[in-house]
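Postdoc handover notes: sequence design on the structure in folder B. Input tokens:
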């Protein structure tokens, strides 16, 4: 058995035995969008593309986002992945690698890469937030390439009247007439020159404090401008504005997801219109950050948005859902017919675990650094549900076949600012058979100290098991 190892990021995935077992799908194949769980590319490596945007070229979607390392916040390049189904992502390249020196060189910050194709030159232009490692040297930068997958050449700051834009969080928007815009935290909007290599006009002045991670889409004659409050890597209730013109007036509308869910524990980065033959689905793309393990444990929250008039929402969290990229139609995710609770005889606990409920239901949890749990299941796919909680930490997941071979392993983050039972890990599609999932305590958790010295993140390292849902 050949092991596909990804030691650099701390994740390890061994899927070749799935292929050897005669399974028709490529190793690591999924058939639905799963939010809040690790994704793996064709190499078995975690998909590392946060603060991302998607550019459609022909019938292919290209995902550009921040490559990350575990244990450091320094710029690690911008990755490019491709997909035709928006579910299975093929690693293409490090589209823009760490530069030899200077901005986007070693020990700097590079975030929120977005790519648009200039209508006048046909060139692909990547925009990003470039910064010093202490977030005190920010500007909007750009890079260009002839091919969408790169290599991109970094040109430094994007200029307006010869001067850089010294702002941090940025986004992009391409209007129906292919005019390109740069969006900045606070709500500034800048119109790009036709070659997308400089700014022509400051179209809208900032209208809010914070309003980070700006993202925009248009439906008919309404522009929707989404952003977050300013809480660093911690989540908050993201909100939005609408207008009939990019020059405003912008009307503040409200939160995107139900208040208190903290945007289903995510921060918006982009909205992708999936324009099919029957329908256009607007897909919310958010990040569930997990510093320092951004490479292995930060996840993607991608949800279909409900857009009606001036209102947009994500009223229910969809653990999994399907999108037909050709028709643009959304359907529910796969049926998982069996539930294995924490009290099922197939669950074996090692170390000190605590049951939350006495009536033989509810999650079991532990803060014992040596604790682990294993659960056997028979089927083609399993989803692990946990109680994410304010003192939650990292868990190590290992899936084995019934010969005891390790098929894959991963790290998941069981923190949430409010307690919530939620899906944490979904196996790829497996040949029908018997498997064991092993869940153990890593012993640490995510935290972040911002430049004002404020700490956010988990206060503990607890993990929990609520249930396993199995697809037959
Ligand atoms: C916010 C921004 C991110 C990043 C972090 C760093 O979440 O949106 O892009 O800069 O803060 O704290």
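Designed sequence:
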């Amino acid at each position: 058995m050949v092991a596909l190892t990804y030691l650099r990021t701390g994740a390890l995935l061994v899927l070749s035995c799935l292929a050897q077992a005669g399974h028709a799908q490529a190793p690591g194949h999924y058939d639905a969008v799963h939010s809040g769980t690790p994704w793996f590319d064709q190499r078995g490596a975690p998909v590392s593309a946060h603060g991302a945007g998607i550019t459609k070229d022909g019938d292919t979607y290209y995902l550009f986002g921040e490559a990350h390392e575990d244990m450091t916040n320094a710029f690690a390049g911008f990755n490019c992945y491709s997909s035709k189904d928006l579910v299975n992502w093929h690693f293409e390249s490090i589209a823009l690698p760490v530069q030899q020196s200077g901005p986007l060189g070693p020990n700097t910050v590079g975030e929120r890469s977005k790519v648009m194709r200039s209508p006048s030159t046909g060139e692909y232009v990547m925009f990003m937030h470039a910064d010093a490692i202490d977030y005190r040297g920010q500007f909007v930068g750009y890079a260009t390439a002839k091919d969408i997958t790169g290599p991109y050449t970094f040109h430094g700051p994007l200029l307006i009247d010869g001067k850089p834009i010294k702002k941090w969080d940025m986004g992009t928007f391409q209007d129906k007439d292919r005019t390109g815009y740069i969006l900045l935290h606070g709500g500034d909007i800048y119109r790009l020159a036709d070659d997308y290599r400089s700014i022509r006009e400051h179209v809208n002045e900032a209208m809010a404090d914070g309003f980070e991670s700006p993202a925009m889409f248009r439906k008919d004659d309404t522009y929707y401008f989404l952003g977050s409050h300013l809480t660093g890597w911690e989540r908050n209730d993201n909100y939005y504005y609408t207008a009939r013109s990019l020059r405003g007036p912008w009307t503040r509308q409200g939160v995107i997801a139900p208040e208190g869910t903290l945007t289903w524990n995510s921060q918006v980065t982009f909205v992708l219109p999936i324009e099919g033959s029957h329908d256009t689905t607007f897909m919310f793309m958010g990040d569930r950050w997990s510093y320092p393990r951004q490479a292995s444990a930060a996840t993607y929250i991608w949800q279909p948005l409900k857009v009606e008039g001036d209102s947009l929402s994500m009223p229910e969290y969809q653990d999994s859902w399907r999108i037909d990229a050709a028709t643009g139609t959304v359907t529910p995710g796969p049926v998982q017919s069996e539930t294995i609770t924490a009290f099922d005889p197939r669950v074996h606990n090692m170390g000190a675990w605590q049951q939350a409920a006495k009536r033989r239901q509810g999650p079991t949890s532990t803060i014992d650094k040596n604790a682990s749990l294993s659960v056997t299941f028979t089927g083609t796919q399993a989803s692990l549900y946990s109680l994410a909680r304010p003192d939650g930490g990292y868990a190590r997941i290992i899936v084995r076949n019934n010969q005891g071979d390790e098929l894959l392993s991963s790290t998941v983050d069981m923190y949430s600012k409010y307690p919530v039972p939620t899906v944490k890990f979904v196996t790829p599609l497996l040949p029908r058979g018997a498997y064991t999932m092993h869940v153990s305590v890593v012993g640490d958790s995510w935290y972040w100290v911002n430049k004002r010295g404020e700490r956010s993140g988990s206060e503990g390292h607890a993990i929990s098991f609520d249930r396993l849902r199995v697809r037959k």
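Context for whoever picks this up: Confidence is low (pLDDT under 50) at residues 1-26. Don't rerun without checking with the PI first.
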